[in-house]
Write a structure and sequence with these properties.
Layout lengths: L1 E2 L6 E4 L1 H5 L1 E8 L2 E3 L5 E4 L4 E8 L3 E6 L11 E6 L5
Antiparallel strand pairs: 1-6, 2-5, 3-4, 3-6, 7-8
Length: 85
């Protein structure tokens, strides 16, 4: 679930992460989007549900693509851990 409680829009940008997963759907309001998703823009107050299956273990970089936001600390890491055998 992605939730933007701020008065500004933000991006969920994690290209390598998005390239390594299978998206079942993104649900936002009354719209359900199917197919490959590479980036989400969350308008102020937006809530979206992204249902996906990661296909490649690894550590992936996440940032907000709006100018100045990553520099201000809007970055993170996504870790996909292999399922224990
Ligand atoms: Cu941002």
């Amino acid at each position: 679930m992605l939730d933007n409680p701020s008065p500004e829009k933000h991006y969920f940008t994690a290209k390598d992460f998005a390239d390594g997963l299978w998206t079942q759907k993104v649900q936002a309001g009354n719209v359900e989007v199917k197919g490959a998703i590479h980036e989400l823009e969350l308008k102020p107050g937006a809530i979206a549900e992204w249902v996906f299956v990661p296909e490649r273990a690894g550590t992936y970089e996440l940032h907000c693509a709006i100018a100045g936001h990553a520099e201000a600390g809007m970055v993170g890491q996504l870790e996909v851990v292999p399922k224990p055998a």
